[in-house]
Structures are given as structure tokens and as C-alpha cells.
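Tutorial, part two.
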Amino acid sequence: MENGVGMTQTSRRCFVICDDLLRLGIIVSLIFFIIEKTNRLLRFHAMQDYYSARLDHVGIAFKILSMLVDIAWDTVGFMAFWGLL
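Running the prediction step on this input gives:
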């Protein structure tokens, strides 16, 4: 216990801060991971949030790609229906 703050409280704070700042989650979680040397639970939650943020960004990229493919497919279908192809 350091400065009256328990290990579980510190790790919870890290998880909440990183989760609230999803856009900056990768940076904040890496900062927590690099700064903390002794608290393994905090380091675990920092890396957990880092990978979670990375997966969220990959999911957003796949959603955008899916929308673009749907638009292209609908455009081709529309053009084929009206005999423009």
C-alpha cells in the first residue's frame, strides 16, 4: 500500500481512466504500463485495455469497410438493373 492507495484501487482507476478515454486509451494504457514497475495487477489491466482499444479500432475499421462494400454492391446492382452495365 503506497500513499494510502491500495493496489486494487489503483488498477481500477487505470481501467476507468483508460476506458473513459477510448480515443486515447492506447496511449494512456501504455503510459500506465511503462510507469508502473511493481503493481502487476495495474500492468495487467493496462495491457488488457491496450488490446481492448486496439480491437475496438479494428472493429470500427471493419464496419467502415463493410459500409463501403455495401455501397459499391448496391451501386453495381442498381446499374445492372437499369442496364447501364
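Residues 7-81 form one domain. In part three we will examine how such features are distributed along the chain.
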